């Protein structure tokens, strides 16, 4: 997250451990729960304002408004200035180096198996 990574507090990447413990479906349920905690209840999306109002819960209370807005921009794929549930989940996966590495290795393993099955 280029816009604010220098000022954001260090965090431990817990998604791989959560994925291992909860499985894929359980991890997705937890991500959905996290989205619901952070979203603007009236709009149904995460905005910079809703993130700010929940920043202390995340240990991000020291971030400036522009840094919180940068967090939202980082995951805003459709350019509407907010994160819907899908954008939030995609962002969480992108920000998890461990989970991305595991996904890459799993994809590589599946592709290798498919090639073997096809006789290559």
Which labels suit this protein?
120 residues, disordered N terminus, 5 helices, KIC/PBP1/KRP1, Pinoid-binding protein 1, mainly alpha, elongated, calcium ion binding, EF_hand_dom
SS-based structural class?
mainly alpha
Count of helices? 5
Kindly report the average pLDDT value.
78
Indicate the proportion of strand residues: under 5%
Radius of gyration: 17 Å
- Secondary-structure element order, N to C: HHHHH
In total, how many beta strands? 0
Bulk shape:
elongated
- Span of the ends, CA to CA: 39 Å
Unreliable residue runs = 1-11
GO molecular function: calcium ion binding
Keywords: Calcium
Protein name: Pinoid-binding protein 1
InterPro entries: EF-hand-dom_pair, EF_Hand_1_Ca_BS, EF_hand_dom, KIC/PBP1/KRP1
């Amino acid at each position: 997250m280029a816009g604010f990574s220098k000022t954001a507090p260090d965090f431990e990447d817990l998604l791989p451990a959560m994925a291992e413990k909860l499985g894929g479906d359980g991890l997705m349920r937890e991500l959905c729960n996290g989205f619901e905690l952070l979203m603007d209840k009236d709009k149904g999306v995460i905005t910079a304002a809703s993130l700010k109002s929940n920043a202390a819960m995340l240990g991000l209370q020291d971030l400036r408004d522009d840094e919180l807005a940068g967090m939202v921009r980082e995951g805003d794929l459709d350019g509407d200035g907010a994160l819907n549930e899908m954008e939030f989940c995609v962002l969480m996966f992108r920000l998890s180096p461990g989970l991305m590495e595991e996904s890459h290795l799993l994809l590589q393993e599946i592709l290798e198996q498919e090639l073997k099955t096809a006789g290559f």
